[in-house]
Amino acid sequence: MYVCLCVGATNQMVSDAVAAGASTSKEVAAMCGAGGDCGRCRCTVRGIIEATLAAAPTAPANGSLRHLALDITPVGSH
Q1: How much is the pLDDT for 8?
Q2: What is the reported pTM?
Q3: How many CA atoms lie within 13 A of 20 on its CB side?
Q4: DSSP string of 7-51, one letter each residue
Q5: How far is CA 78 from the centre of its chain?
Q6: Per-residue model confidence as pLDDT tens digits over 26-44
Q7: Phi, psi (deg, nearest 5) at residue 36
Q8: Are 41 and 32 in contact (CB under 8 A)?
Q9: DSSP code of residue 2
Q10: Where does residue 74 rank: exposed (0-12), middle (13-18), buried (19+ CB within 10 A)?
């Protein structure tokens, strides 16, 4: 669903920004634009940040971190 109508940012875009390391509404705005214009969506953006961080797996007790690799291919090029 659309979260920020000013820039057309969706909840998935905000979640993706959080997954990429954003943890504040300002960092999300810098990454995808949501919340960076009029500010009406910042409360919703903060809620998505909290939900995304809460759902993220925590680091193992031994301190090792898992790294994710994404294979991004442009649409239509297979």
Answers
A1: 96
A2: 0.71
A3: 13
A4: TTEEHHHHHHHHHTT--SHHHHHHHH-TTSSS-TTHHHHHHHHHH
A5: 27
A6: 999 999 999 999 999 999 9
A7: -90, -5
A8: no
A9: E
A10: exposed
